[in-house]
Amino acid sequence: MRRVRRPVRPRRSVPVNGARPDRAERAIVVVIALAAGVAAMTQTLVVPLLGELPGLLHAGTAGTFWVVIAAMLAGAVISPVIGRLGDLYGKRRLVLVVLALLTAGSLLCAVADSLAPMVVGRALQGVGMAIVPLGISLLRDVLSPRRVGTAIALTSSVLGVGSAFGLPVGGIVAQLGDWHLLFWGVAALTAVIAVLVVWLVPVAPGLAHGSFDLVGALGMTAGLTALLLAISHGGEWGWSSPTTLALFVGAAVALVAWAWWERRVTDPLIDFATAARRPVLLTNTASVVVGFAMYAQILVVPQLLQLPVSTGHGLGHSMISAGLWMVPAGAAMMIASPVGAKLSAARGPKFSLVLGTVLIGLGYVACLVWLGSTAGLVFGTVVTNAGVGFAYGAMPALIMGSVSPGETGAANGFNTLMRSIGSSMAGAVVGVIFTRLSTSVGGVDIPLRSAFVLVAVTGVVSSVVALLVSGVIPVRHVRTPPGNDSRRPVAVPSSGVRSE
Asked: In this structure, what is the dihedral angle of CA atoms 463, 468, 474, 475, given to the nearest 10 degrees?
């Protein structure tokens, strides 16, 4: 007798009535944004500790910088890989995997008293940055269209918000208690978030068809690691040193070989045809410049706030005070994200991106004019970070408007990588400027006022470049029938998408 197949019950990722209650959708957004914010915060938690890490970890100063570098490198190179894995095997599933790695890394750092386990733990924490592109892609798949824009803008902006809040949190805990508490707290928080993801976040309705490109992932990782190391430390090692030149040559060889492979493999990690589309290419280019502008200000303003007044241009704040003065900048980015989402809905994401680049430039101008004023610097960082909030919220919308649903994880991961490259370039440029324009006071190199002026001018120039690039991004106007608030259709297997 032939078996009769029982009807399959609808999965909770696709509600029977086509929409979830508002409360359920708000909970999804809050959980994903919180996860992304905590991951971003881990990037800057240890910055206030840098001066004390050699003694705490019984290591040299050069070695302890790997505590920061490991997290930055892991976050940059792993995001496109995790994004592609999310497209193939389920974005919610990969969010949980990344949260598990972030928790494990935090626990390892919490018990570390030497350099090696600390660096490994920080690398695992860096993987947590993949939550940002994963979360953005997941939100697109599981939320109703009317809420997607605001949710994506909020999740994208917490990349800067978390980084801004990590500075004062790290400073306060390190100064008032045991520095290990930072990592115990992150581990507990990420474990709770993982439970909330299981409880509140639904499975995305479909997966991309194909296989994972392991060779492409290894080639891209090797090339980008070499490139980011050379950019980040070229100023310290010397731009013409054998180490720096070897890294640049190795990066060029690896990335050329990777590009050759990606153009010939059936299921590439990064589809070059998609990445070369003008909207995607220009948006990623703008991401590099905006990432540069944001990180340059994060590097420079706290230093200026903490320099002694005796230098003639320092403002004499403590580590905790300087960190707290950066909190309004993070808050401005968070407030700007929903406003930017409404502007994107009304005028298109390109409008929000252009407005964001203008605000970034105005913020740098304010810092340049009021370089010797705490209030003036805070105002400048607030304006710049509001602009970054507009820009970061608009970029995923521009990217996802130009790629298929099965490519959103990898495409957003690549966009996150472009931001990281911009941040690394900012670190290199600021390092070169501070090295060339500094003076020795009591055996300590102190940046001159002209160094801060030059960085601010560079920020203004970078914002103008971002504005020009953003202005030529082509937009595609899609007309939506009145009253059409239905969820995006779920692709069927014949179209290259399968059920999760």
From this structure: 40
Name beta bridge partners: 439.
446
Neighbours of 489 (CB within 10 A): 10
pLDDT 10s digits, 360-390: 999 999 999 998 888 999 999 999 989 988 8
Residues 73-94: pLDDT tens digits?
788 778 888 888 888 888 899 9
**Other C-beta atoms within 10 Å of 449: how many?**
16
Tokens of 223: 């090339």
Question: What are residue 441's phi and psi, to 5 degrees?
Answer: -125, 110
Furthest CA-CA distance within the chain: 93
pTM attached to this predicted model: 0.73
Q: Report yes or no: 152 and 139 within 8 Å, Cβ to Cβ.
A: yes
With H, G, I as helix, E, B as strand and everything else as coil, classify residue 479. coil
> For residue 394, what are its two tokens?
């608009």
Task: Please report where in the chains the tokens 């993949």 appear, as a residue.
Answer: 130
Report which listed range, 163-167, 171-175, 188-192, 454-458, is most confident: 188-192
Q: Do 460 and 166 form a contact (C-beta atoms < 8 A)?
A: no
How long a stretch of residues is the chain? 500
